[in-house]
Structures are given as C-alpha cells and as structure tokens.
Amino acid sequence: MKNNSIILMLLLAFSPASHATNSDAGQYVTSFYKWYIKEAAELKNPLVQPELKKYVTDESYKQLMKAYKADEIDVDYFIKVQDFDDQDWLKNIAADKVITDPVCTQVYMTFGKINPKHVVDCLVKEGNTWKIKSVTDIE
C-alpha cells in the first residue's frame, strides 16, 4: 500500500495538470510585471492603482497598504530596486522557473538583460485565482 501511495504522488507531481498549473502561475506573474513595470515607467505609482488588488492576496495587500501609508517602504516591494532601466525591463520580463511546494508556488523572475534583476514571487490561490503572497530578492 505504501508503494502505491508513493507511485500516486509521483504521478501527480509529474502529471500534465501539475505542469499546466505551474505554467499558469508563470504567465500570471509575467502579466503582473508587464503591467507593474509599465505603470512605474510611465511614472504612475502602481501601489495606488486599483488594479494592484487583483494581483495580490488580500492579507498581503492590507499589509502593503499599511506600510505604504505609514511611509515605511524604502525599496519597491515587487521589484526590489529604487531605479531601473524601464526600456530594458519592459522588453525583458521572464519567468525562469516555477517550483511548487506545500506553502506556495514560487515563480523565479528576471527583469532586464543589461543589468538583470532576479526575484522570487510566492503565489497562492485565492478562490481560483493566483495571487502574489510575497516577493523575495535573490541577489
């Protein structure tokens, strides 16, 4: 019986549905960053745009807004820099790798080619929608 459980777990881990979910997560985060970086490049503050809420978990959004209103954000929460080459970054946004663990689906992102920046987005599902729970700088 134990061997059957292991086989079932392996089949689920390598099933097409599992990979489709990972692909969806990567596409979702890429879509978010295309919007986010475009807003920032146009000198619009993406943190105050209503669209942000559709990409971020409710709890993370509340915490982020609290920190923003208290002026406690020194470096951009999502891209982890203060300045960037918007032309390079807008053309070069890539989801490099997607890993699912019991806590979240981690999407490894790269922005730019000239001076690339790397972050990892932790995604969870709220209902049937991917949402960003947190972002980590990996440099």
Automatic annotation (TrEMBL):
The record's section on InterPro entries has: DUF3828
- Signal peptide (UniProt feature, chain positions): 1-20
Entry superkingdom: Bacteria
Q: Where is the DUF3828 domain?
A: 27-137
Protein name as annotated = DUF3828 domain-containing protein
Q: Where are the transmembrane segments?
A: none
Which key words tag this protein in UniProt?
Answer: Signal
Does Oxidoreductase appear among the keywords? Answer: no
Annotated organism of origin: Rahnella laticis
